[in-house]
Design goal:
By secondary structure, the chain is mainly α. It folds into 2 domains: 66 residues, no CATH class; 153 residues, no CATH class. Helices cover 69% and strands 9% of the residues. It has 6 helices and 4 strands, in the order αββββααααα. The termini are far apart.
Length: 229
Amino acid sequence: MSLSGTIQLAANSLLAQQIGLQVTGNNIANASTPGYLRQRVNFVPAATQERGTLRFGTGVTVDSITVETDRFVSERNRRATSDVSAAEPQETTYLQLEALLGELGDADLSSTLDRFFASLQTALTEPDNAALRNNVLAEGEAVATELNRLDHGIDSLRKEINSKVVTLADDVNRLVSDIARFNAQIVTLEGGGAIRSDAVGVRDRREIALNELLSVPLRSWTTTWNGQT
């Protein structure tokens, strides 16, 4: 190999390793950055040269810089995040309804109804007894009061959820718009597959937007009231 060929081989190797060190340093610097996807440098043998009937290599070169991620694990993680985001607000709503109904205490609707029907049954044994009839009226008023309280409480809870849905819908629209913009940038930067390197920076921002979108509990809020929101 000639002196110039040796120098070229060394230059190719140094350049490739310099890029590798830069990518490694970038991975270390972003080790705790939310949404960052680790990058990998893919080395391949550099183009060969011919001299007469001989072929010899010219060192190493960087073929591409790609995102190091497991698509299967990422998909499972996204599904798990979505399930948790859907379950948490649903649980919160059920707990609020449970507290509103108060079925574990003595001031709940079922206890009020039991007292009303008991007073009615007692009054039927002595229909001429004014005191028993007045007691039936009092218990009936208690039932009406309890029903009005529950109606007011459930209506307030429904309005609160509707307000949250409106806010979350705005967040979803914003995130979907951002993801669509990132996708267009990725296609442009990666040349529709013609360029082997990934648009690493834009993919990171898209990953953050996807995770944020999956954390929005809109699906659970909109199904809590069976489509009444």
